[in-house]
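Ticket closed. Logging final result for Glycolate oxidase iron-sulfur subunit.
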Amino acid sequence: MKTEFSLTQLADPDIREADKILRNCVHCGFCTATCPTYVLLGDELDSPRGRIYLIKEMLEKDKPPTPDVVKHIDRCLSCLACMTTCPSGVNYMHLVDQARVRIERDYTRPLSERLLRSVLAYVLPRPGMFRISMILAGLARPFTALLPTPSVGAASPTLLRRIKAMLALAPRGLPQPGPAAGTVFAPLGRRRGRVALLQGCAQQVLAPRINQAAINVLTRHGIEVVLVKDEQCCGALTHHMGQDADALARARANITVWQKEADRGGLDAILVTTSGCGTVVKDYGYLLREDAVFAEPAKRISALAKDITEYLSSLELAPSTLRDDVTVAYHSACSLQHGQKITELPKELLSKNGFVVKDVPESHLCCGSAGTYNILQPDIASRLRDRKVANIALVKPDMIAAGNIGCMVQIAGGTSVPVVHTIELLDWATGGPRPGLN
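Final structure:
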């Protein structure tokens, strides 16, 4: 794609990066076939190729974002299926992230939307606040029937429809909090390694059992596990809302405490059980590439970050104790298969440990969770969830496995089949409790 940025514009490192990305695009359109919003809506501007044109014009002409540009960028899930499909290696992720920063900086949204986004950006990264909000949401759930149903025909979801979607995602009850930050879990037997485990934000409130299962499996196999004190949200939530100052501040804070822990006791890896977080942590090196202080530490931390299944694949797990032929539909989270290019490892681990693993038809299409997307774009998100659940039903599973809490909550809202994390199944197979019973 031909670009016409001025030399003054190209002095900005973000514009230089955008220019490089745009020049890689050859307009082939392969991305449209795997883009969930294009598949659903059929609008060229709701495809990666269409959005790339919109972003190019906005950046090249240094124009304030228009309502139309904002609408189509907001509809992007950042599922990154287009990057898996693209034959030219277009880094759409870094381009659309830059567009979101520009929109956040230069576009004034309606007051109700600004308030909602501010609340989400403040509450979700703070587990204490998020727990309180989930308790309040649970109390309000009985009144959701009084709110309007999401409508795909509307140009933009109303605040009430978004609130209804948010309440529908709230659980009926919350589990007890998991172990506190600063806790160290000793390995059983001889120590074979030492890792930090990302504690997460929403996950530690909604499903602390996931990290507990990871701790069980790791310590069972000789790995010391550290929950690093003063760790923060990884920054993914605010990063994808275009609030980069907040996201980068959180990244710097995490790099500081993880590096300190690595210097103190050594770390073989920083393990992540939420793939959406993992994709961003692995991108710290890029996000802080222009930071004179943090550029090199960020690269080192990104290199240490691994999805839990990546790390477990390097261990020789104990022989499976599983005796049931449990059929598992494996939902490949977008942030894992497209963001981190991890596709086969989780399925191989499950198969080796006694599960009958079934691929879900249209596995490349997003379930509609995508961070805060199912709140901000509930109409599209609900259609994608229903499509995903229908495809899962075709394989008639006993359980559904996924590697991302957002996907788990989203899919569970449309099915009665237990939705569990991959690590919970591996914990069960190697001596832990059967998941999906609570």
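The chain has four domains: 7-106, 111-169, 184-312, 327-429. No further action required.
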